[in-house]
Amino acid sequence: MAKFDMNDDRVVVVVGSGAGGGTLSNELAQKGVKVVCLEAGPRTEIQDFENDEWKMFSKISWLDKRTTSGSWRVAKDFSGLPAWIVKSVGGSTVHWAGASLRFQEHEFKTRSHYGSVAGANLLDWPISLKEMTPYYEKAEDKLGVTGTNKIPRLPGNNNYKVLAAGARKLGYKEFHTGNMAINSQPRDGRGSCQQIGFCFQGCKSAPNGRRSTPRSRRARRPAISRSGQTARCSRSSMTTRAR
Amino acid sequence: MEQINTAKGKETMRQLDKRTRLTRRRFLQTTGVTAVGVGALATGQVLIDPRGAWAMSLTTLSPETAKTLVQAARDIYPHDRLAESFYAKAIEPYDAAAAKDAALKDLLTNGTAELDKQAAAKGAKSYADLPNEADRVAILKAISGTPFFAKLRGDMISALYNQPEVWAKLGYEGPSAQKGGYLHRGFNDIDWLKA
Prior knowledge:
The complex is a heterodimer of chains A (243) and B (195). With 243 residues, chain A is mainly alpha-helical. Chain A has helices spanning 19-30, 53-60, 73-77, 110-114, 129-143, 158-170, 224-227, and strands at 12-15, 35-38, 61-62, 83-86. Chain A has a two-stranded parallel ribbon. Helix content of chain B is 46%, strand content 6%. The longest helix of chain B has 20 residues, at 102-121. Chains A and B meet through helix 6 of A and helix 7 of B.
């Protein structure tokens, strides 16, 4: 693993390797910036993924001791259950199914559009769809989102067929399998979706755990393939120094 | 899991159990007349299904406790097509867990004793011997706010439904990665929808 001088102020330290930290680390590394990405969880790879919901829950969820309080249902029924977010290299992108929808214009203006809610601090976003559009386009291209960049949508499964039939009957004109960061055809060196059915347990798109077919979802652990090695680290607090 | 091969050598999609299934009515008619047996082993006791379909060896929990737990598990998650053995398998780990956890042993022993007591008030020998499902469910509802009920209900979600044999019974086809996913094995194979 690369070592950097503690006083090297050209090094960027990113905390967490999930959707935010992982993506940021990757983009910076591609620009030649030296990045140290800190991740508390272990590396979980295709051979670690199992097509078993409960086993994967025990393997990649946030297993640290958790407490829950208040009157909500989870506190009552499952107060000690691990949170279903992922503590692993890649963070929750490991179990992200890839739904990649843009906000619509009115969703940036939540407060203006829906009005204030008593007792809540509902706000408009300080940015607009117009400002976000170039970034949406960039992300959709990098993630290979179906329905964008001339990428065909995924085929509909049985569930979809039933839903689509209902939508058609109700008079809907537009319905489809969604904008998904899942390859509907080989793209960018990665194979296409095999309809394994275990997106939330880690995409195991290589037979018998061998990586003969690159996984169909780009989003998973974007930082790692290009930014090099990682080490586990976990801290509850971090000392920062004013410069 | 059971795997079925076709002439082409490829596995077919459906792996549903082809055996005759009890209807709910038939099930309710038959369960009341059977009695779960209890035997003794050198290391503890054993709870035996009268039809010989399953047996559970016990070192810590009493056969009465286990019997009530099995029936309560079925009443909380009723599936007529599931044999008693699946519920027994879901309950069985409690015995080893209770051996290491006195509080759990108390929780299960006292919880089932309460169920049995309420069943006795309705004239039955024990909870499992109360023949009418609605009567048993009424008892469960009465104790649904207790830690015992919460424990049983919570644990049974995985203990019952995470048995691969249960998946097959419920028509869930399970792991697919080693078979190349469902892409060529019927992920879109329904034929009863008009286009």
